[in-house]
Design a protein that fits this description.
single chain, 151 residues, Aminopeptidase, 4 helices, alpha+beta, globular, seven-stranded mixed β-sheet
Length: 151
């Protein structure tokens, strides 16, 4: 598997992310959906990566700069057929290393509280993320869990 930055211009990643946003909308109420669409992911403060196995897109993730020392993990997704195959761990390890290389000292994330999100929460715990209060512009929300990690 290879991880590379992506400019979000191809139709394959557009479809992959559209499916992600639709799934998040189906699981979470509109006021609790924080998945970024293509336009938001193309902003200068966001770095976006894809994971490919041969030529197949199998995962993606992003890092959004919040301030000089703090970044947010966004848009982590693994292709359904590849869940629990190491794609997310490989990508998360890469993003953490990149965040450190970029000079960030803290990495935070928001994920859901529903059972659907339990594997994601377990993955983040495995990588040293701990539960925290809402950060940045987030507000307390019964459908959101907030996690952070010092780098």
């Amino acid at each position: 598997m290879k991880i590379a930055t992506d400019d979000l211009s191809g139709p394959e990643i557009a479809r992959f992310l559209d499916e992600h946003v639709r799934q998040m909308r189906a699981i979470s109420p509109p006021e609790s959906k924080h998945a970024l669409d293509l336009d938001a992911l193309r902003k200068p403060e966001v770095t976006f990566w894809v994971v490919r196995d041969s030529d197949s897109l199998v995962g993606c993730g992003a890092l959004k700069r919040l301030d000089a020392g703090h970044a947010e993990l966004k848009s982590m997704r693994t292709m359904a057929a590849r869940k629990r195959s190491g794609v997310a761990s490989l990508l998360l390890e890469h993003i953490i290393a990149e965040a450190e290389h970029m000079g960030f000292t803290r990495l935070s994330l928001e994920t859901g509280t529903a059972e659907f999100f339990l594997p994601a929460r377990k993955l983040y715990e495995k990588f040293g993320f701990v539960y925290c209060e809402p950060f940045a512009d987030y507000q307390p929300d019964p459908h959101s869990t907030f996690m952070t990690r010092t780098l």
